[in-house]
């Protein structure tokens, strides 16, 4: 979701081109941090008229939808795209997994994580939520939908139908409404979907990167992602709604480029807003119509405001937070759990002390996130670019140079 820093408009410099998207990532990251931090440290400040965490996540998904298909089309190369994604996502992800496992010596692993080989398989593919598995770090669930989106977009690109984003946004919105009406649990239960999915995923990635059976692999992975989304997710209507939001972001980019209209954006937004209304699985406070719609409006308004102001100078602190937002996103929850384990229940502390601890936590989080970006994320991205360049044929290099 937040791991989407790519170029789409060659007329401007890369920094200017991405500044507003980085700012949105920064806002989204800190909203998610606040959603998790406030109940543990300053519960009186947590809002309930909208969901801070879902607001941040929706902003991330709109950004991914806006930029990911454009990235693939700009590259015109499935191999380069997937090497970029692997080196963008996995190094920090694996580091955080290692951190959580080391912390398990004194902070027990979340109960939602099965003590079974299927959990290892689900973490390898990142398709955790769509094979109904809990992640070692709570925020990892969103990466499942990022990965589903990548797989479906790749299949659409290979099939030459990737420009039908508006229709896809509406289709997934309709699927969210329908799934909410008829599905109350995953139709692919048990541990086997995670293991089978991991095998197919790894084999498919080898094909996409090597070029062998690339078309077959792209279609197979896209179909697998679609089946898992609708029949393997914890909450099928929610998974479909997320894809509708992401393709809505793509539809906005098409509209901006002059290759699509805004009608699909309006229709898909209405369908996503309605998706939990009649859903069997919609008993949580944050999907009640007033809260859900308010959260959607705030996320969409934030994205629209970012677009409207992108030609103006963006506050440096927002772009810096956006730059390290993937680290912030994955590190913040394990750090919170570690803080809670060391200091116990902090909810009853005096306001001044709670504020001081919260400020200290944020300083540590931002410092560690900058360090992991500087020494893990950035070097891994550079390595991915070098590998991608080394694998290009002379014809590919000349066409992209």
TrEMBL record:
The keyword Acyltransferase applies. GO terms for cellular component: membrane. The keyword Transport does not apply. One of its GO terms (molecular function) is acyltransferase activity, transferring groups other than amino-acyl groups. GO terms for biological process: polysaccharide biosynthetic process. Residues 19-374 form the Acyltransferase domain. InterPro entries: Acyl_transf_3_dom (IPR002656), Acyltransferase_3 (IPR050879). Keywords: Acyltransferase, Membrane, Transferase, Transmembrane, Transmembrane helix. Signal peptide: none annotated. It holds the Pfam family Acyl_transf_3. PANTHER family: ACETYLTRANSFERASE, BLR2367 PROTEIN. This is Acyltransferase.
């Amino acid at each position: 979701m937040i791991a989407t820093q790519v170029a789409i408009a060659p007329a401007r410099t890369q920094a200017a081109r991405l500044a507003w998207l980085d700012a949105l990532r920064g806002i989204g990251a800190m909203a998610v941090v606040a959603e998790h931090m406030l109940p543990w440290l300053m519960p009186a400040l947590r809002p309930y008229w909208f969901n801070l965490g879902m607001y941040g996540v929706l902003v991330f998904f709109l950004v991914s939808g806006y930029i990911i298909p454009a990235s693939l089309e700009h590259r015109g190369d499935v191999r380069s795209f997937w090497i970029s994604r692997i080196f963008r996502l996995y190094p920090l992800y694996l580091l955080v997994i290692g951190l959580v496992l080391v912390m398990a010596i004194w902070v027990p692993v979340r109960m939602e994580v099965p003590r079974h080989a299927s959990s290892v398989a689900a973490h390898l593919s990142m398709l955790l939520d769509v094979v109904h598995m809990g992640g070692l770090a709570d925020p990892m669930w969103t990466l499942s939908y990022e990965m589903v989106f990548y797989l479906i977009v790749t299949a659409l690109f290979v099939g030459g139908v990737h420009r039908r984003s508006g229709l896809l946004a509406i289709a997934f919105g309709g699927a969210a409404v329908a799934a909410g009406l008829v599905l109350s649990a995953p139709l692919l239960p048990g541990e086997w979907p995670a293991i089978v999915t991991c095998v197919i995923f790894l084999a498919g990635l080898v094909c996409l990167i090597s070029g062998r059976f690339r078309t077959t692999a792209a279609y197979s992975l896209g179909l697998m992602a679609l089946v898992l989304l609708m029949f393997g997710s914890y909450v099928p209507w929610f998974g479909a709604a997320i894809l509708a939001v992401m393709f809505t972001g793509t539809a906005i980019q098409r509209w901006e480029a002059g290759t699509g209209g805004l009608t699909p954006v309006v229709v898909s937004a209405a369908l996503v807003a309605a998706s939990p209304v009649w859903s069997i699985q919609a008993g949580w406070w944050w999907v009640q119509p007033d809260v859900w719609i308010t959260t959607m409006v705030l996320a969409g308004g934030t994205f629209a405001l970012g677009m409207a102001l992108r030609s103006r100078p963006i506050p440096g602190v927002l772009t810096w937070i956006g730059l390290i937002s993937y680290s912030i996103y994955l590190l913040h929850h394990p750090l919170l759990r570690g803080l809670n384990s060391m200091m116990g229940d902090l909810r009853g502390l005096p306001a001044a002390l709670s504020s001081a601890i919260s400020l200290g936590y944020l300083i540590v989080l931002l410092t560690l996130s900058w360090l992991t970006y500087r020494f893990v994320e950035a070097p891994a991205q550079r390595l991915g670019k070098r590998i991608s360049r080394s694998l290009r044929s002379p014809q590919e290099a000349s066409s992209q140079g």
